[in-house]
Amino acid sequence: MDLGLKGKAALITGASKGIGLATAHSFANEGVSTLHLAARSEAGLAAARDALVQSHDVDVHIHPMDLAVNANAMELARRCAGVDILVNNAADSAAGPLDKLSDQVWRDSLDMKIFSYVTLSREIYAHMKSRGAGVIVNDIGNSGENPDADYIVGTTGNAAMMAFTRALGGRSLDDGIRVVGVNPGPVATDRMVKLMKRRALDWYGDEARWEELFDKYPAKRPASAEEVADLIVWLSSARAGYITGTIVTIDGGIASRRSII
């Protein structure tokens, strides 16, 4: 299936590893001509760029920066004003229940999960609007629809981003733009392991038991980063041209089962 992405330019945040990196490779596989990759790790971004350039005919630009800092998000939007696709993916919400999290932890988590997404969306949207076309995909998380008191920062930020995506996407076609969201459940990434270890510590008093939590999933496994990436790329394409203002959940049935994880 030709997704019609040849010649397009995309910006992906959180692109040095995990879902972001997998999304970069999936875009490159579909013939995207220019990729802008942003993350905190310069070394990780450089490695991602080298791997992409070696395996695909793609122009890759890297932007090492902390997007929790508003000035950095504004600068990234300025550098990437011409992109056709924005994938907001950079986030690192802390795990734990309310009584274990300080105000600073809340602010640090939500500066990345909410404010970097909002700032980049607002600034890139303006450029897309001037051209009458564009797609914004927000990688959010299924805890936004399945509230989780043991991941209360993440569940709050995700619910806010779901509302943001639906509100903006409900009007964005007036400007020729689509805004959609993706709600992954657990995904086999380094970040998932960190969150699972914290949950195992809270539940069992032993973070080494984190793999036992897989038995609670309907599919008995997490998603792969590539499974989520392929969904993001499809939603970015003309094949999904009638989809906006909605959230697509990819969690192996966890939210539908109302599982606690």
UniProtKB/TrEMBL annotation:
Superkingdom, natural source: Bacteria
InterPro entries: NAD(P)-bd_dom_sf, SDR_DHRS6-like, SDR_fam
Signal peptide stretch: none
Keyword check for Transferase: no
Keyword ATP-binding: no
Keywords: NAD, Oxidoreductase
PANTHER family noted in UniProt: DEHYDROGENASE_REDUCTASE SDR FAMILY MEMBER 6 (PTHR43477:SF4), DIHYDROANTICAPSIN 7-DEHYDROGENASE (PTHR43477)
NCBIfam families, per database record: PRK06125.1
Name of the protein in question: Short-chain dehydrogenase
Lineage of source species: Bacteria, Pseudomonadati, Pseudomonadota, Betaproteobacteria, Burkholderiales
